[in-house]
């Protein structure tokens, strides 16, 4: 669309009529005031200031539907540089917005796929330890140390699953988990103890040397994914 120096509409094409819901014949040769504010204000500024204007996103209604548009205006000059009027070009951003919504949906789906994979991994590790201990229990129920380890490890691994479920319940209210000084040897010892029956069943000898000096870091042992989730 275009206007002259007095602000009178001189050009109003079919696309402009469709987007604004205004009939071309009722707009031509009329003042800027007949146009939607988002268009008339930019054209008035362009005529008055003699400079181009761009509005990356505005809302334009045709009376039934409100659409996002991008609008750019530019002055029209004669050879002496006098402003003769201004032209406005605006485009419907609805298709681009639909693509953006679809992209965000795809990103959310990818996130939930990754989340589901992580949950499966977090549940599987404790279950492997519990299953292995349970399978060995009939053959070693006379081993008091093994029975004691069974009760401790199974209780701890079930507690891990319970904490995971608690975290899932508050997933809609995520927040920063507190980081506290922890001795990194503790979660490593837990992990080794949980997996030792698996190694023993496969005749794998596992040895570890944690040392006598605490190795303190800032982390989250209680909410860890597996033995160590975050260390700083």
Mean pLDDT: 83
How many separate domains? 2
Count of individual beta strands = 7
Q: Note the beta-strand portion.
A: 15-25%
The poorly predicted ranges are 223-232
Give a quick account of the main beta sheet: strands, pairing sense, barrel closure. 5 strands, antiparallel
Question: Order of strands in the sheet with the most strands?
Answer: 2-1-5-4-3
> Into which percent range does the helicity of residues fall?
40-55%
Distance between the termini: 59 Å
Report on the architecture of this protein.
- The protein has 6 helices and 7 strands.
- The strands form 2 sheets. It has a 5-stranded antiparallel sheet. Strands 6-7 form a two-stranded antiparallel ribbon.
- Strand 4 and strand 5 form a beta hairpin.
- Helix 4 runs antiparallel to helix 5 and helix 4 packs across helix 6.
- The C terminus is likely disordered.
Provide tags for this entry.
Beta-Lactamase; 2 domains; single chain; 232 residues; five-stranded antiparallel sheet; disordered C terminus; two-stranded antiparallel sheet
Helix and strand arrangement:
Layout: E1 2-4, E2 9-11, H1 14-20, H2 24-27, H3 37-49, E3 53-61, E4 66-77, E5 83-92, H4 94-140, H5 144-169, E6 180-183, H6 185-201, E7 216-219
Antiparallel strand pairs: 1-2, 1-5, 3-4, 4-5, 6-7
Helix pairs in contact: 4-5, 4-6
Please summarize what this structure is:
It is built from 6 helices and 7 strands, in the order E-E-H-H-H-E-E-E-H-H-E-H-E.
């Amino acid at each position: 669309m275009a206007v002259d120096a007095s602000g009178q509409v001189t050009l109003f094409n079919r696309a402009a009529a469709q987007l604004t819901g205004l009939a071309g014949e009722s707009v031509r040769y009329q003042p800027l005031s007949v146009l939607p504010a988002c268009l008339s204000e930019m054209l008035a500024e362009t005529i008055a200031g003699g400079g181009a204007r761009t509005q990356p996103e505005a809302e334009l209604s045709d009376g039934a539907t409100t659409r996002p548009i991008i609008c750019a205006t530019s002055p029209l000059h004669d050879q002496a540089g006098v402003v003769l009027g201004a032209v406005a070009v605006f485009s419907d951003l609805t298709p681009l917005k639909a693509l953006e919504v679809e992209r965000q949906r795809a990103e959310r789906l990818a996130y939930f796929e990754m989340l589901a994979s992580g949950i499966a991994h977090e549940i599987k590790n404790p279950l492997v330890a519990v299953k292995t201990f349970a399978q060995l229990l009939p053959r070693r129920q006379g081993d008091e140390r093994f029975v004691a380890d069974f009760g401790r490890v199974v209780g701890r691994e079930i507690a891990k699953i319970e904490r995971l479920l608690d975290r899932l319940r508050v997933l809609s209210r995520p927040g920063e988990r507190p980081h506290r000084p922890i001795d990194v040897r503790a979660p490593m010892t837990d992990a080794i103890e949980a997996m030792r029956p698996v190694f023993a069943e496969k005749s794998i000898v596992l040895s570890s040397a944690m040392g006598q000096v605490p190795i303190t870091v800032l982390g989250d042992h209680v909410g860890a994914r597996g033995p160590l989730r975050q260390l700083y």
